Amino acid sequence: MTPQPNRPKISRPNTTRPSTNWRRALAQQVLRHGALLLPPERSSWANVMQREAEYIDDDREALRWAWGSVRAGLAERLWALRSSEILSARAIGALWIGTFIFSSAFNVSITLAARLRYQGVASTLGLLLHGYHYERFVPLADAMPPALFVLMGLVVVLFAASLVLRIRNSRAAYGTFCSAVGLSLGAWLYQLGIPAYVEAMPAPHRWRIGICFALTAGVLVALRLGGAAPNRNVASDGDVVSDEEAASSRRVNGSPP
C-alpha cells in the first residue's frame, strides 16, 4: 500500500530519547494546555492526542500535530455552544476577559521592549496606540521598577487563568478575575504617579483605561450583589456539592433553606 504523503511518519514511541528538542517540549506543553479547551464530553481526546504525538518521530510534525489538536479542540468547544449562547452573559464575560488579556499583555510588552531598547518591536506595537512616540516611552520604561514588570506579567497570567476557568464554567473564575483586576488597577495607579507616564500615554488612552476600570468595577459589584457569584456549598465531609444537592440535603434534614 502506498503511504499517504500528508501524514506524519508514525512509529513506536521512542522512550529512550530524552525530550531535549524545544519543538518536542513545546508540542507537549501545547497539548497539555490545549486539553483545557475541550468540552467535557470530549475530555478523553486529550489522552488520545498526547499518545498520538508520542508516535511521531519528527519533532516538527509533532509540533504541527499539537497545533492541529488545539484547533480541533477549539472547534469542538465552539460547536458545543448553542447559537443562543453566543451572546449569553457567559460568552460576553469571556470576551471581556479576553480584552483585558490583550490590553495587559500589550502594556507590559511595549514597555518591556522600550526598556530593552528593542525599538523595532516597540514601534511595531506602537502602531496600535494613537499618538505613540518611542522617545517618550524610553523614559517611562526606565522609570518603572523591575517589580512592576513582574506584577504586570502576573496580571496577564491571572487574566488568562480566569478566562480558562470561565470557559470551563468554574466558580473560581470570579475570584481570579477580581484579583487580576485589583492588581492591574494597582499597577496602573502606580504608573500614573510616574511623570513620564503622562508624557508617554496620550490623554484619551488614559481616559479609556479609567473608564474601563470603572465599568468593570460596577459590573463586578452588581454581579456580587445580584448573586451571580454565589458561595460554594461544602458538605460536612469537605466535598463541594451543587446548589441542588445542598437544597435537597437541607430538606431531608429539616434545615431551613
Can you characterise this structure?
The chain is mainly α and 257 residues long. It folds into 2 domains: 22-80, no CATH class; 86-226, no CATH class. 68% of the residues lie in helices and 2% in strands. The protein is built from 11 helices and 2 strands, in the order ααααααααααββα. The chain has a two-stranded antiparallel sheet with strand order 1-2. The longest helix is centred in the middle third of the chain and has 27 residues, at 89-115. It is globular and about 55 Å long. 19% of the residues are buried.
Content of β-strand: under 5%
Major beta sheet, strand line-up: 1-2
Total count of domains:
2
What is the number of strand segments?
2
Q: Uncertain regions: pLDDT < 50 for 5+ in a row?
A: 1-7, 9-19, 228-247, 249-257
Mean pLDDT: 76
| Most strands sheet | 2 strands, antiparallel
Helix/sheet category: mainly alpha
Number of helices: 11
From the N-terminal CA to the C-terminal CA, the straight-line distance is 68 Å
Overall shape: it is: globular
The Rg value, from CA coordinates, equals 23 Å
Helix content: 55-70%
Give a quick precis of the structure.
By secondary structure, this protein is mostly helical.
Topology:
Blueprint: H1 22-34, H2 45-54, H3 59-80, H4 89-115, H5 119-126, H6 134-143, H7 146-167, H8 172-192, H9 195-200, H10 203-226, E1 233-234, E2 240-241, H11 243-253
Antiparallel strand pairs: 1-2
Helix pairs in contact: 1-2, 1-3, 2-3, 4-5, 4-6, 4-7, 7-8
